[in-house]
Design goal:
Layout lengths: L6 H4 L8 E6 L6 H5 L5 E5 L9 H13 L4 E5 L7 H8 L5 E6 L5 H9 L7 E5 L2 H5 L1 H6 L3 E6 L1 H8 L5 H17 L6 E2 L7 H14 L3 E4 L5 H7 L4 H15 L9 H17 L6
Parallel strand pairs: 1-2, 1-8, 2-3, 3-4, 4-5, 5-6, 7-8
């Protein structure tokens, strides 16, 4: 029997995905557990999660999964490696492929060349992990084939030497948010908070949301529900939107200059709440 995708997540457009679970494709790969999780999107990882001598075997595991009823994204190796072309040749016609996450994207042509080697229309999620990638973020966002931007915090910190404090990473996050808006893309996906749980993970999601990011990478199944909650409209926001929209529908329109922006925000909260199954809770 094929393993079916979490049906709630399967019905959610990837433009709205909050939690992006990286499922390692190494020898101990457990794709069924990842696909049964609450992750909005699952990414089979044949890049950082796999050593060089295990790439071919990991690629075969992913292909077997995608050929036998599973569906997901795949994080492929970057364009400057010997594995990039092999990854694309193997995945080009995989039936369960939802899209690819391109590691270490630094230039717009990295995305375009990747997209050209896949089935037409296959989305490419550009993982930006270096100073050069951040500085080229706007061009990357506008490149043909780019679906969404994501922030590779670990490699970015190694490349630049910056710390993990939100202030130290604010410039890079802000560049990705502005670039996404200019490129007419969904909000960017923040990097993982390795080891965080509970209130700490919610606080990290709060940083992402405050910066304008609408998704977050994770390496752990157990983080997915918290990320989904942290990047969704809150109960108080939904209540406020309910009240404003109900008043609006009954002719209770406000007269000040902030009313239309508040109405637009309430409508956005309603749309997100409906998409995430929260509006009528």
């Amino acid at each position: 029997m094929p393993v079916l995708r979490n049906q709630r997540a399967a019905a959610l457009p990837a433009t709205l995905s909050r939690s992006w679970l990286l499922a390692a494709a190494g020898e101990n790969a457990d794709f069924p557990a990842a696909l049964a999780s609450e992750a909005d999107s699952v990414v089979f990882d044949i890049e950082d999660a796999v050593p060089a001598d295990g790439k071919a075997a990991a690629r075969e595991r992913v292909l077997e999964a995608l050929d036998n009823g599973m569906s997901g994204w795949v994080r492929i190796n970057d364009i400057n490696t010997e594995f990039w072309q092999d990854d694309l040749d193997a995945l080009a016609n995989a039936p369960g492929l939802r899209g690819v996450m391109l590691a270490k994207t630094e230039k717009p042509e990295h995305v375009t060349l990747t997209a050209m080697r896949l089935r037409p229309g296959t989305p490419v999620l550009a993982l930006v992990e270096s100073a050069l990638g951040i500085e080229n973020a706007t061009d990357i966002a506008k490149a043909p084939g780019t679906f969404r931007l994501a922030f590779g915090i670990g490699d970015f910190r190694r490349d630049t030497g910056v710390g993990d404090d939100p202030m130290a990473l604010a410039y890079a996050r802000g560049r990705l948010v502005i670039a996404s808006r200019v490129g007419q893309l969904p909000g960017p996906i923040d990097g993982p908070s390795v080891g965080a749980a509970g209130d700490d993970l919610m606080a990290a999601c709060g940083v992402s949301a405050t910066m304008g990011m609408t998704g977050k990478l994770t390496l752990k199944v157990e983080q997915t529900e918290t990320i989904n909650a942290g990047l969704s409209p809150s109960a108080s926001e939904i209540m406020w939107a309910h009240e404003l929209l109900e008043a609006h529908e009954h002719g209770g329109a406000g007269g000040d200059g902030s009313y239309l922006p508040r109405l637009a925000r309430a409508q956005k909260i309603r749309n997100l709440g409906e998409s995430y199954g929260l509006w009528n809770e």
